[in-house]
Structure formats: structure tokens, C-alpha cells
Amino acid sequence: MSTPQNTTLIPETQRGPAERLLDLVLSGSAHLWHNRPGLDVNGTWVAAAYATPAQRTVGKPVKPGLFVPAAVKLYRQLLDIYQLNSVLMAHFASYALTQTDWRDLKVATCALMLVQSHAGLPVKGDGGEVAFHDDDWRAIGEAMVLHYERKSTRMLTPKAVLRVAELLEQPEIARLNREAGFGDPASRKPPLGRWKRVAARWLAAREANVSMLQGLVKAGYKETLKKLARKAGYKPRAQGFFEVLGWKQKQAESGHRTVGLNGLTLVKRERFDGLSEAEICEWIEHERLSYKEVVGRLPQDLGMTPAIMAALLPSLSDRDLRLMTPTLEELGLLAEPTVRTRWEKAIQTATDQRALNIAKNVRSDVLRQKLEEASDNAARKAVEEATAETDVRVMFLIDKSGSMEGAIENSKEALARILAGFPMEKLHIAAFDTTGTVLKPKASNRTAVQHMLAGLKASGGTAHAAGVLALHRSGVKVPEGAKLVVIVVGDEAGEAGDQFARVFRDCGYSVAALALLVSVAGARGSTVRTCSSQLRVPFSEVNVDQFSDPYQVPRVLKALMDAPTLPGASQSGWVERVMRTPLLKVA
């Protein structure tokens, strides 16, 4: 659970560096764990199955699991924040768990908090008496592990709890921790801090709540729970823990085990060999089995059939339904009215843009369009969530000058993923070189945005102000009380930033926040950053390449829209947002 605390402000001299570090971490998108073979292409993970010939030439094969280069990069960034200001890092860890959906960021911040050196130890005075106790930021890491919200994604899954230890055990991460003074430099064992203690407490809470433990097993976490228990050295209170996990026990060489050695009634998953399709369906409905519980138990000569999949549908989440669209299509289930209705409802609830990748694997054009609609819905939800209490108007300025030759196509793809998220009546778009051109999509969807951008070609000089002037001449006004967010797409190589800032004032536009979607073919300028400094408004930036990540678009949109809604927002928008987050507390 979390409790409000007085915000501790960081020194003004640290605000600039802290702001840049937080922006870098929160606008990043690299995944640390991958469940399929990949390639290490100059420190970037690429799926082996979809790598280009050039990437296959330079890439090094990577097995499924933790991608170490990305893990080291992210952990270094977190260490930089911690070493800059440990109070900021404590609030940031609480923010990462409760306010973001980036699962790997939660794992990395939890790992750092469990091993860093502020552990609540007594500080003694000159006479040897205890003067006070140091801050206990390791308790933040413990609270991250123990934090529980029913049916919420804002907590650590069993797999995430295990990954905290796996990350800390990586030799390069262990080296970084030792260099930071978090462990014995002479020890061969990696510093794990309080991980074993809190993992054992996490397991004990599940053992005490049998239905919760059974639910985790049913959700497919049986082997993860076994690994957690082994790594934490967990000793169950009763043999029921082993029975639920179907985990046969034997005496240790030292003979110290006393629980689970005799009389175990193991809960085993029996295969469905010899059963008919109808009997399997009846078993699924009677036992309320999930997809994960069934798929590995089906007879090889039968496999997954339409009837079996139909029986499993009640156990599938909306996310599962979206991911399994190709399977549902192949089995012909999307032609069934009840299944189709449920699937279309799932399309409306999308919170990420993975549907764009899934769309490549379906045959039907209608289904492909529906999946693209799911991508648009994810963007819309992100914008709606971030602007629920504030009237936000958005001005997109797209650089199509000659310096964008070779980068303009990347800009188009990023915009196609973004623009459909905004209500058309609150969205104003202009392209610019030395002159500005107002653009307007025919509809609020990905296809309409692609059609609108198709004719943009890179040529001419660069004047960001031309885009603003074009919108002003077309009659664009920002209602009183509304917040204006300006998002520039390009390399910001153009006129001086103070000139760009001046045009907003001359046109009567009060800018609440500025953002840059960096798309660079050659040299990069500083027009937008200087403009934000002149206007004294929050500034964020993100590289357009990151929008290939299906989870990145909603995350960035929320961040961009959050900035102007903060009371008294200034250029230190990230810091203020994070420092307002209550510190997590161990229940």
C-alpha cells in the first residue's frame, strides 16, 4: 500500500540533469526479456524471424531470455538517477510501479531499490550513541514486491518477482552494483540485498491464501513459483504448498527437510489422451480450465479444434482474444455471431498497438482493418486518460524540408500510429518547409492519416514558424481555459529558437508544453529546445524509431499529455510529477 508523504524537493542545481535522466528513462521502450530468438544488432534486439538481410549480416544470435545490453543500459540510467538524488529515485520507483505499464522498468527499479545502500541503519554520534537512523529505501523495493491490487497490472507478477533476482545475478549488473558500493567487492556472489527475504514473504502470503496460490497455478505460473521457492530458499509451513504445485519432494543430503516428505497428495495435470472432443470440452467446462492448462494436454491426433477453443473462450481475456485472432480466424470461430461480438468488444478495449503486428498474420481484409482499429483505440484511450480533467488542444508541426530527405517516411509511420488518438476537433496539423500547409485527415483513423501524409515530400528550407502561421491564418484558435500542446516532428534544424517562440506570442497562442518527435537524416538543430526554454514550458522528446514498439505509443502520448495538466508545471515537469508520487510502504 502507499501513504501520502510531504514531497522533498530536490536542489535547483540538480533539476536540469534529473529532468533529462527521467525523460530518457520514461520515454525509453526497450524490452529486457524476449521469449523468442533474436539478434544483437549493435546493442539493439531484433527478432531473428523478421530481421533484414543487413541485420542478419552484422547481428549476433541471442537466445530467448534477458537481453543483457538493454538491461545494462537501463540499469545504468537508473543508477545515474539514484546517484544524483536518492530521494528522487525512491519516488521514481514508487511512480514506476503505480503509474506506468512498462513491466521491465518496474523490475529494474525494484532490483535497484532492494540492493542500494540506504538500508535504515543506525547512524551514531561522537559518543557512540545512536543519533538517528538512515533512510530505508530498501523498504521501497520490498513494498514494490508486496504491493497488491486485485486484477491490476500495477503490481509485480510472479515472473517479475523472479526476474528481479535474475537481473541482479547477471554478472554485468552485479559489477555495476559493486562499483556503486552496494555489495562486498571481494564477494563472488552477486549482491541481492533484501530479495530473498521479501520473496519468501511474498510466497508465504500466497501459501496462506490457498485460493490465490491455486489461481496462480491455473494462470500458468506453476514452474515460476517453483523457481521462486528454490531461489529464495523458501520453507513452506505445510505440505499443502507442494500439493497445489504438484511438486514431489525428497530429503536433502543434510537430512534437514521436515515438510512434504510423506503423504503428499499431488495435484497433477492429466493429459487428455483417449478422451473424445466432447469429453474434453465437458472437462474444460466442469473444471473451468484455462487455455494454458489445456493446450499442452491435448492428444496429438486431435489438437486444438473449433469446439475445444469455443469451450476455452470464457477463460480468455480481451488481450488474449486480440492476440489469438489468427487462430480464431483459422478455426472459423470469428464467423460465429457470439464469438465475433466478444472479439469486437475486445478490439474496443485495446491498450497497446500489438494489433498492428497481429494484422500481418490474418487473411481477411476486414479483420485486418478491425485490428488496425484496435491500434487506434489504444491511442485514443491514452489521450482520453491523460486529458480527462483538462481541455487539451494539440498542434502538430511536421518538418518536410530538404534536411528531412531520408527521414520523412519514418515520420509518416510514427504519425500514423499517433494522430488517430486525438479528437479531430481538438487536433490541428500543419506541414512546413519555408511555407506552411494546413493538413486535415478525412477521418479519425490510421488509414485516413496515411492518406493525408502520402503526398509529403522532403524539399525546401526550414521555418518552423511557417507551420504556426499557416494554422493561425486558417482560423485556428485555442479556447480560453484550454491547454495547448505543440508537438514538432523533425530534426529541429531551422530558424533560431527565439524566433520560433516569438511567433506563438504574435499569434496569441499560449503554449502549455512542447515536444519533439526526433526524426533525423543528417545533422540535428536546437530550434524546438531553445523555443521551450524561451517560453519556459515543459519539454519532452522521443525518437520516432521507438514507435515501432507497440507499447510505446500509449506510453508517450500519456507522458506528453500529462505535462501541461500539472498544477504550476514548469520545465521540470517530469521531476514534479515523480516527486508528487507517494512513497510506497510495506503493509
Task: Give a written overview of the molecule.
- With 587 residues, the chain is of the alpha/beta class.
- The chain folds into three domains: 12-239, no CATH class; 316-379; 390-548, von Willebrand factor, type A domain (Rossmann fold, 3-Layer(aba) Sandwich), CATH 3.40.50.
- The chain contains 27 helices and 13 strands.
- It has helices spanning 12-26, 53-58, 68-84, 86-99, 103-115, 138-146, 158-169, 171-179, 195-208, 210-218, 222-232, 240-245, 277-287, 291-295, 306-312, 318-323, 325-330, 337-348, 355-358, 365-386, 408-418, 446-453, 464-473, 497-506, 527-535, 552-562, 573-579; strands spanning 33-34, 38-41, 44-47, 60-62, 65-66, 122-124, 130-133, 392-399, 427-432, 436-439, 483-490, 511-518, 539-543.
- The protein has a six-stranded mixed beta sheet, with helices on both faces. A three-stranded antiparallel beta sheet has the order 3-2-4.
- The radius of gyration is 27 Å and the shape is globular.
- The N and C termini lie close together (6 Å).
- This is VWFA domain-containing protein.
- It comes from Myxococcus stipitatus (strain DSM 14675 / JCM 12634 / Mx s8).
- Residues 394-491 form the VWFA domain.
- Pfam families: VWA_2 (PF13519).
